[in-house]
Specification:
Its cofactor is a divalent metal cation. By secondary structure, the chain is of the alpha/beta class. Helix content is 41%, strand content 19%. It starts with a helix and ends in a 6-residue tail after the last helix. Bound molecules: thymidine-5'-triphosphate.
Length: 629
């Protein structure tokens, strides 16, 4: 996600980060910037004594790093990138500048100098706009620095050496990494934390805003006027041009182009990113790079039996996407890749990735039928409904079904804790997860509520595969599996029924039928935990006619109305306190026709209902069985 509008503005420029620092790459990537990484070869050996202050030294080094990359790229292709970003982080204590230690002894003398005192961390940043004209490179440098003050506690000799022996200090200014083990040495921080880690993101965004909207307008249109060559910015940095190249063109010709169709171009291009991810997962690139030392492209290619050139391009794409980091020593996984893209990552989504890779969204395969004939992409070739993916896959090969189970399992595992803790369910003694598949949610419910016994109720052909998905550890005995069809068979007895990510796959009639069955099975005082992606009200209104036959996300209001009619009282909704990952994972389109108003429905919804009072209410619920909500 790109929060900062100025960063969004850079999305269609060729941006290069002239730094090998994995931390800088991570910070800028998290901010949504897209860039290539070309580490600078500038030797950080400027004579420090010539600079009036430590930050002046950091700023000049940052500038020289960026300019070296701009010149090298221009020489190589006679075409420089649009923007090159350079940065340099130093630690200053008592007028002394500390950079990266050269060896352990050097690290020791730096850290003992910092012990028990406050020091400053300065990061100098240079933003170089480039323009290649007639084989010549024109550059336009803006620069600034940020200061953060850090206080260390008193460090014992033992602690110092233990820390040095961890190896962490060696590639970091001042010999410590505040974001990792080095955080233990730190007593207080005043200022921007990311500045210490290597890149002052907040100040960087402000600087970009100054450059691109010099009059302080929020309006993202290009600025109409800009300063001439030789201007100086507020930090005393040289700046020859206030606006970027785009603005210059518009002011020269007097022609104002239409707003840049950023979102559209992103969509056109976005499949490439997915393709790179799919390919890397299929080839097990992230498994290969897990835990080991960084590998060069040629070594990865050798292990995969692939071409060095193609592998290099794939690995670079993964760097740009934030799944790999690249240094002089080679490629290695980012934390995201270790966690989500390796086969055995704690929250591996590899199964989901492979499923989507092997089963592209049907709309792309049969766009004509979806658009022209109004056939739902989940339907069979003649428009007949094949049911939710899990059931539809029963008609397919064992391999397809297993792939789908892995996909559903990985997603359920990622979101299970948010779901299990969205409401306090501790008063329930037993639960039945209808269509609970591999039991990913059931096990987390059992872990969160040690008194709860959970039955996973699903089709026999699904349950025959669950053995491969069982977690180790305590409380697995709280969970049991029972084969059955929630439309055909009697529902197992339970105090709480769970219907998670089921309803969106069914049309209204079936949704009503299933919830009516749950309402009838519910004991007085029993409950229902309904988990689904919710459509916003507008999408809901537009989807109304289409969804009756097709399924798709429904709004909170529709579910609330239906549940009340079925006799549930105390209907409550909660959007999970979701991480961006969770939101993205949940908020995906079921079918394009069900969401004509937008591809990404706004929120995930969890609601719990409890049958109000006993029998009359349940009777009412039964009498509603045939009516559509
Ligand atoms: C103080 C501190 C520094 N650092 C890092 C940030 C920088 O990467 C590094 C300082 O060295 P730099 O020379 O600024 O950067 P670099 O050598 O890592 O990368 P490049 O020169 O290619 O841009 O120290 C931390 O990661 N944590 C910290 O707490």
């Amino acid at each position: 996600m790109v929060l900062c509008p100025v960063i969004r503005k850079l999305l269609h420029k060729r941006v290069v980060l002239a730094s090998a620092s994995p931390r800088r790459q991570e910070i800028l990537r998290q901010a949504g910037l897209r860039f290539e990484v070309v580490p600078s070869r500038f030797k950080e050996m400027l004579p420090k004594a010539l600079f009036p202050s430590p930050p002046a030294y950091a700023v000049e080094t940052a500038k020289q790093k960026a300019l070296e990359v701009a010149r090298r790229m221009h020489q190589k292709d006679l075409r420089a990138p649009d923007v090159v970003i350079g940065a340099d982080t130093i630690v200053a204590v008592g007028g002394l500048i500390l950079e990266k230690p050269v060896d352990k002894q050097d690290a020791y003398s730096m850290l003992s100098r910092l012990s028990g005192k406050e020091h400053s961390v300065f990061t100098g940043v240079a933003i170089v706009h480039c323009c290649s004209r007639d084989g010549r490179l024109d550059t336009d440098v803006s620069e600034f620095y940020e200061e953060t003050r850090v206080r260390f506690s008193e460090l014992s000799e033992d602690l110092l050496w233990e820390y040095i022996d961890s190896g962490e200090p060696m590639d970091k200014a001042g010999g410590y990494g505040i974001q990792a083990l080095g955080g233990m040495l730190v007593e207080q921080v005043h200022g921007d934390f990311l500045n210490v880690v290597g890149f002052p993101l907040n100040r960087f965004c402000k600087k970009l805003a100054e450059l691109y909207y010099p009059s302080g307008r929020e309006d993202p249109r290009p600025a109409q006027s800009h300063q001439g060559r030789g201007g100086r910015d507020e930090d005393g940095g040289e700046r020859t041009q206030a606006a970027g190249p785009e603005e210059a063109v518009s002011s020269r010709t007097g022609h104002s182009p239409p707003p840049f169709p950023t979102g559209l171009l992103e969509l056109v291009d976005s499949f490439k990113a997915s393709k790179a991810l799919f390919t890397a997962c299929k080839l097990k690139v992230f498994d290969l790079l897990k835990d080991g030392a960084p590998l060069k492209a040629v070594d990865v290619a050798g292990k995969l039996g692939a071409s060095a050139c193609g592998t290099g391009r794939l690995l670079d794409a993964c760097v740009a996407l934030g799944f790999l980091q690249k240094t002089d020593r080679g490629y290695s996984n980012t934390e995201t890749a270790n966690l989500h893209l390796t086969s055995d990552g704690a929250y591996s989504l590899r199964g989901l990735v492979l499923h989507h890779s092997d089963h592209p969204w049907d709309l792309s395969a049969r766009p004509e039928s979806a658009g022209r004939d109004g056939v739902d992409p989940h339907d069979g070739a003649l428009g007949e409904r094949t049911g939710p993916p899990c059931q539809a896959s029963c008609a397919h090969s064992e391999e397809t079904r297993l792939g789908l189970l892995r996909a559903m399992h990985s997603l359920a595992k990622l979101t299970a804790r948010h779901v299990a803790t969205a409401f306090d369910l501790s008063r329930f003694g037993s639960a039945c997860d209808l269509g609970g598949c591999t039991g990913a949610l059931a096990y987390v419910l059992a872990r969160e509520y040690p008194r709860l016994r959970v039955t996973v109720f699903d089709l026999p052909e699904v349950l025959q595969h669950v053995a491969g998905f069982q977690p180790d550890g305590p409380r697995t005995e709280q969970v049991s599996f029972l084969p059955g069809d929630f439309f055909e068979d009697s529902l197992p007895e339970a105090d709480l029924y769970v219907v998670s990510r089921i309803l969106r796959d069914w049309p209204d009639g079936k949704v009503h039928e299933l919830l009516s069955r749950v309402a009838r099975a519910c004991k007085p005082g029993g409950g229902l935990l309904l988990v689904d992606v919710a459509a916003g009200p507008e999408a809901e209104a537009e989807a109304e006619g289409l969804r009756r036959r097709a399924g798709g996300e429904r709004s909170a209001a529709v579910y609330a109305h239906l549940l009340r009619r079925l006799g549930f009282a105390d209907v409550r909704a909660a959007a999970p306190s979701a991480t961006p990952t969770l939101h993205r994972a949940c908020a995906r389109p079921a079918s394009p026709r069900a969401h004509p108003a937008g591809l990404f429905p706004p929120v995930s919804l969890i609601r719990v209902g409890q049958t109000a009072s006993p029998r009359e209410e349940l009777g009412t619920a039964g009498s509603c069985k045939c009516g559509a909500p």
